[in-house]
Every structure is written in C-alpha cells, then in structure tokens.
Amino acid sequence: MGRSSKDKRDIYYRLAKEEGWRARSAFKLLQLDQEFNLFTGVRRAVDLCAAPGSWSQVLSRKLRASEDKKGETRNEEGNEEVKKEEERKEEVKIVAVDLQAMAPLPGVTQIQGDITKVSTAQEIVRHFSGQPADLVVCDGAPDVTGLHDVDEYIQAQLLLAALNITTHVLKPGGTFVAKIFRGKDVTLLYSQLRVFFSQVTCAKPRSSRNSSIEAFVVCLNYSPPEGYVPNMSNPLLDHSYDVDFNQLEGPNRIIVPFLACGDLSAYDSDQTYPLQLDTSQEYRYTPPTQPPIKPPYQQACLLRRNNLLAKEDSLPLAQEVSLQLAHE
Ligand code: SAM
Fold first, then answer.
1. Is the shortest distance between the CB of 136 and ligand 1 below 6 Å?
2. By alpha-carbon position, which residue is closest to atom 15 of ligand 1?
3. Which atom of ligand 1 is nearest to 137's Cα?
4. What ipTM describes this predicted complex?
5. Nearest ligand 1 atom to alpha carbon 51
6. Cα-to-centroid distance, 221 and ligand 1 (Å)
7. Which of 25, 57, 62, 99 most suits a substitution to test ligand 1, by most atoms within 8 Å of the C-beta?
C-alpha cells in the first residue's frame, strides 16, 4: 500500500497507529484487562514473545501510569508525593523477552532470548532480584505456514514452552495470559493449564478477528501441584499419549469457560469502519509507531527496490547489497 493512499486496513490497525501503539495487538491485552483486571497490584511483569512491543507498551503505560500524573502531583501535593510516586514507579519491573531485538520502551528491560531456554528464565529472575513475577503474558506466535494442522501444533508447543518458563518465574497466586489457537487438541492444553491454575478461561477480545482461531487463555491463581519442580520438558513432546482428548467425558474432560471480552460496544475487528478523523483537515498518513528493527524481509525489500530480486545476472550485485546490510 502506497504511503499516499488512504489506509484501508482494519480499524484496530489504524487506531493503533493513531494512538501510538506499535501493533494492533495492544487492544487485545487492553480488552482482556477490561474483563479480568489483570494489572491490579502488579509490580513485576513478564512479556514473553514481546516484539515489536505493543503488549510491553501496554504494561509500561498501565503499570507505570502514575508517571503521566507526575506534573499534576507536584503542583497539588508537593515534592514528598512526587518522591513517593517515583519510588513506586521504581518498584515496577517489566521484562520483555523475544528472539528478535525490539526498540526500547520506558521501564522495560529487554532480553533477546528464547523462551524455551532455562537460561532465559534465570535471566528474568535475576532481573527481579530473585523475586517471582506477579503476571506473565505471552502473545507468542511462530511464523505461520498456512498448513493449519502444523500451525496449530507449533502454536501449542509455544504455549507449552511459555507455560514451562512461567512455572520458573511466576509467584503462587499469580496470573498467566497466553495466546492459544482453538484447534482440535485444545482440550489437552486446557487440561495441562488446569494442573497449574485453579481458574482457566478462554477469552476472545473484540479486537481479535472472529475469523481467526486465535483466542487467549487467562489463567488465574497459579498453584502448581505439591512438590512440582519447574523444568523445561514438554509434556506433548516427551510423552506419547494414546488418548483422544476430545473423546474424554465427565470429570475427565475439562470444560473451560469461553468469554467474549472488551467493551461490547467496541469495534468488531471483522467489520469495516471509516476512521473517524477530523474531516475538515486533509488526511495525513501516519507511519507505523515503531517499524521493526532489521526484519528478516529487509534484504528482500532492498533487492526488489533495486530490481535485483531473483535475477541470475545480478547475483554479484545482490550479494554486495546483502553484505552491506549485514554490516549495517
Ligand atoms: N505481543 C507482541 C506485540 O504486541 O507487539 C507481538 C508478538 S508477535 C505476534 C510473536 C513474537 O513471538 C515474534 O516477535 C517472535 O519473534 C516471538 N517468538 C516466537 N518464538 C519465540 C521463542 N521461542 N522465544 C522468544 N520469542 C519467540
């Protein structure tokens, strides 16, 4: 889409740009919070699979909200209040983990790492000075292949990896929120989550397209089985189940409540709406809030721009461009 054309993408995509969110997914976490009050009393939060960082932005803005009121407080109640606010803000620690680098955000420490690694869990705990987290969120998604079964399977693996690392860092009673694909084996995932959390709900924010099988599990009150020792092994990979979990009945089958969330007057992400901008002014393109840092497609874009893509005779030049990029 050219920069000069009006943005025709979905309403949440456009709102995200207008409101300065790095991605439209910010609205999903905001709408989950509307329903579950996720942020009340949270001082230590972890954002797994965080890049480009819209969920970390939400955490940063919500948990450190008093920062915005700093000026007001100074006028009304003097320096003592400001100091207390500053101390409170200092207490809030947010760690964002992703394989990819992410542009910095206020109050957010980044770990460029893999959530399947124990070393990443250790680094998170180190950042919290040995204290456990109050909240872990994960909007992780593998690169989709378009083969639904494969995509569902890989997403399930990522969710289990997120659960595993969460068991290393979350405090008893803490909250875990993660993206889930409601595929055919979702019952198995619910069962596994219920082993660790007393309340598991599957929630669908208004900003998550109805046409997508994506939803979010909101798991409250972390209470691992007695004697459970956190590890990074993956129950789906490590055991061969010969049970069809969808055939389970009665107490063996865990039915997780399903909840639509976000204010029901909110925009439906499958509908098309005009963006209600000031019509007296000419439309001006709003660039993305934070373009990705060195995205994997950067090289291909540059080659295409220079008409060097997939042309044998231009191979040496293409290699030169690639080398230049690698050194930037
Ligand atoms: N929540 C983010 C936001 O609001 O900006 C969007 C997350 S994006 C949909 C999914 C991210 O998962 C990608 O940035 C990808 O690098 C990350 N990811 C996938 N597998 C991962 C892994 N094993 N460890 C860490 N990050 C991973």
1. no
2. 49
3. 1
4. 0.99
5. 14
6. 25
7. 99
3-state secondary structure of 285: coil
Gap between the Cα atoms of 170 and 77, Å rounded: 36
How far is residue 103 from each of residues 14, 54, 146, 263, measured CA to CA in Å? 21, 11, 29, 30
Supply the pTM of this predicted model: 0.79
Q: What is the pLDDT along the chain (328 residues), one digit of tens a residue?
A: 344 445 557 899 989 999 999 999 999 999 999 999 999 999 999 999 999 999 999 999 999 975 444 444 445 566 777 777 777 777 899 999 999 999 999 999 999 999 999 999 999 999 999 999 999 999 998 888 888 888 888 899 999 999 999 999 999 999 999 999 988 878 888 988 999 999 999 999 999 998 888 999 999 999 998 888 888 776 544 444 455 555 656 665 666 778 878 776 788 888 888 777 777 878 778 888 888 887 778 888 888 887 877 766 666 776 777 777 666 6
Q: How far is the CA of 143 from the centre of ligand 1 (A)?
A: 9
User: How far from each other are the two terminal CA atoms of the chain, in whole angstroms?
Assistant: 27
**H/E run at residue 298:** helix 298-305
- For residue 214 and ligand 1, the question of a CB distance below 6 A is answered with no
Query: Do the beta carbons of residue 180 and residue 139 sit within 8 Å?
Result: no
On the CB side of 247, CA atoms within 13 Å amount to 3
Q: How far is the CA of 238 from the centre of ligand 1 (A)?
A: 24
Q: Which residues are catalytic, by number?
A: 179
Give the H or E element holding residue 87. Answer: helix 70-91
Inter-residue contact 14 to 272 (CB < 8 Å): no
Running DSSP on this structure, what letter comes out for residue 251? Answer: G
Tokens 């790095």 identify what position? 22
For residue 47, the CA-to-ligand 1 centroid distance in Å is 10
